[in-house]
Write a structure and sequence with these properties.
This protein is α+β, with helices and mostly antiparallel strands and 320 residues long. The protein has one domain. It contains six helices and twelve strands. The strands form three sheets. Strands 3, 4, 5, 6, 7 and 8 form a six-stranded antiparallel sheet that branches. Strands 10-9-11-12 form a four-stranded mixed sheet, with no helix packed on it. It has a two-stranded antiparallel sheet with strand order 1-2. The longest helix is centred in the N-terminal third of the chain and has 32 residues. The radius of gyration is 28 Å and the shape is globular.
Length: 320
């Protein structure tokens, strides 16, 4: 019986004469030297990060008022302890909240951003979508303003919170934002609320700057948040919080440059959402010099350049 080694087609591999097995001394020396360089560079980078994080990180006690603290976090008292921007540790919380927002968008059929200056208390699990009169047609929720008008009819207190009409850009008097993410309509003619996000910018008592708090609520309960304090260093205010872009199909109707410039969405309408960035003190940037013409939509938000690295395009109707 023939073995594999004795088969005429088998080939035995033999090392070439004079070829060394393993690494030479020179190769080992080069490998050790390169390892030392990499380890040394890593140590220097780690030291730089450690030193700078301690130098830049400042914990401040911010008096946001008892009403705001109860509304935001369901806690008593009026002060919160947070980090002053720039702070890089808070970025982990920002990333976590962004992932939650992306997940909520996948479950939503419509998204509506509403500006405000008052504290928000509208965080329901469902919204009643029945017409006040059975003979009337239901409201067509095709824009932030249409949703705002609808909300005023079904939620007590909404009129005092969302008291400013919205088309594309919030007014300077409305620095805070609430985002309603809505799911499909139920058989009982209710709309399920996937989640509510509140973005609040508050001028605290006794400190020159802005306290920013970004929070996610599910069924009225706080699930995730991040916050930071931005010391006033002479820069422009952090606004607008969002910009709403409309479908280019609406350009067929002439409504003036101030509105028509936002009719540029090639498909479904969307938002540009500007989230506060704890790693950048947005109020430390030099005042912006306007560069874009009034016919450009960028003219409404060009001053946000460099103020945050968290600019998110949000579809108004994710299901489309």
């Amino acid at each position: 019986m023939k073995t594999a080694s004795s088969h005429p087609d088998s080939v035995r591999v033999r090392p070439f004469p004079g070829r060394a097995r393993g690494f030479t001394f020179v190769e080992m020396l080069v490998a050790i030297s390169m390892s030392a360089i990499f380890l040394g560079a890593a140590a220097l980078i780690y030291q730089s990060i450690s030193v700078n994080s301690k130098r830049l990180t400042t914990v401040v006690e911010v008096d946001i008022g008892s009403g705001a603290k109860l509304n935001f976090y369901d806690q008593g008292g009026s002060t919160v302890r947070t980090y002053s921007a720039p702070n890089y540790g808070r970025l982990a919380q920002v990333q976590n909240l962004k992932e939650k927002l992306r997940g909520d968008l996948e479950k939503s059929e419509s998204v509506f951003c509403l500006p405000r200056s008052q504290l928000n208390t509208i965080r329901p699990e469902f919204l009643d979508y029945t017409a006040p009169d059975p003979t009337d047609e239901k409201l067509n929720l095709d824009s932030p303003e249409a949703f705002r008008q609808y909300l005023l009819t079904i939620e007590t207190g909404a009129a005092a919170i969302f008291d400013d009409p919205i088309r594309n850009v919030p007014s300077a008097a409305k620095p805070s934002t609430t985002i309603f993410l809505l799911g499909p309509q139920t058989e009982a003619e209710f709309i399920r609320v996937v989640a509510v996000y509140d973005i609040d910018l508050i001028v605290p008592t006794g400190l020159d700057g802005i306290y920013a708090s970004v929070r996610r609520y599910k069924n009225g309960s706080l699930t995730d948040y991040y916050d930071a304090f931005f010391a006033n260093e002479g820069g422009d205010a952090f606004r607008p919080g969002f910009v709403a872009f409309e479908s280019e199909k609406r350009a067929a109707k002439n409504e003036g440059v101030a509105i028509d410039r936002f009719k540029v969405a090639p498909g479904a309408p969307f938002y540009l959402l500007f989230l506060p960035d704890p790693s950048i003190n947005a109020l430390a940037k030099a005042p912006w010099t306007a560069a874009d013409p009034a016919t450009s939509p960028r003219q409404a938000y060009e001053q946000m350049a460099g103020k945050t690295s968290f600019v998110m395009p949000i579809p108004m109707f994710p299901a489309l």
